[in-house]
Amino acid sequence: MSQIDPPPASLSDSNSDILRAISAGLGIMSSGQRRIAAMILKDPHWAMQSNVKELAARAGVSAPTIVRFARTVGCEGLRDLKLKLAAALAVGAPYLHRSVTPDDTPADVARNVVGSVTAVLAEWQRQLAPADIERAAEAMHHARRVDCFGTGATSNFLAQDMQARLFRLGIVTNAFSDAHLQLVAAATQTREDVLLAISFVGRMPALLEAVAVAKERGATIIALTRTHTPLAALADIVLGIDVPRDATMRVGTDAYVVQLLMIEILMVIIGLKRGPSTISRLGEIHQILQTHAVDSDDPSLLHWGWRRVLRGEDADPASKADG
Length: 323
Fold this sequence. Notes:
GO terms for molecular function: carbohydrate derivative binding; DNA binding; DNA-binding transcription factor activity. Keywords: DNA-binding, Transcription, Transcription regulation. The chain is α/β, with parallel strands linked by helices. The protein folds into three domains: 1-92, Winged helix-like DNA-binding domain superfamily/Winged helix DNA-binding domain (Arc Repressor Mutant, subunit A); 130-276, Glucose-6-phosphate isomerase like protein, domain 1 (Rossmann fold, 3-Layer(aba) Sandwich); 277-322, no CATH class. It has helices at 9-12, 18-24, 31-42, 44-49, 52-59, 63-72, 78-92, 106-127, 130-142, 153-168, 179-187, 205-216, 230-234, 253-274, 276-292, 299-311; strands spanning 146-150, 173-176, 194-198, 220-225, 237-240. The chain has a five-stranded parallel beta sheet, sandwiched between helices. Helix 3 crosses helix 5 (52-59) and helix 10 (153-168) runs parallel beside helix 14.
């Protein structure tokens, strides 16, 4: 069969609960599709975490048959099927965590939570678009200025973290969470600038308004968000963070960890682009922090500082020898 069958109305109409849709459609499925359906219904957690080859091997079908099955039950493809499976499992599970049951021991909780995040990360890694990451890194590397926008507790923290990392690499950068300051920053952007907008939700009105202003000014818009959001639609480059929604949190642990990893990947690539001088710069910063910072690995520095404070003396680094 060379073409993908359109989803039957009886199935696509009920795709709000994918497990119910699969069960309801068993009677009109082919034998191969029934084997896939039985496999998913028997172990939906495993199905959500497995790739197309693993699914095909267990069901005894070809990889294209897995994709056709996803379309048959009203999904856009395998990734959409997995996201709907994750949503269905989250709805049916305790609100503390989709992978934890009330009878789990602390050891079970640790294993299940870590295993869930690991599975999500593996699937997210398979979905990464290296070309888009490269384009984003290149744009920030050459930018006159990079403004990082975040709206909400998590996005604001991530924007601040991004700004701190870019600053260490020698890039002129700012981080804004206030809607008014975001508009001011957007109004002063040019074609030489980059706006990095961070939002897992991807539909915060004030953020979208500021991004639209920067886009009108000619800035390159990079969005760290889910791929099918209004923010993604505005962006020139989308760094996708499509992971299952949390049952109760707007930005759950999966989304938080994936965004941190994307920032880390970007920083390493940008650092490599900026060459040996940047590596030397980072080494100098590390040395200064080790020598002067109160959180130095050398505890004598901290103790020396506190001794001088307790004596009521000025903390003169040149006088360290008296400690």
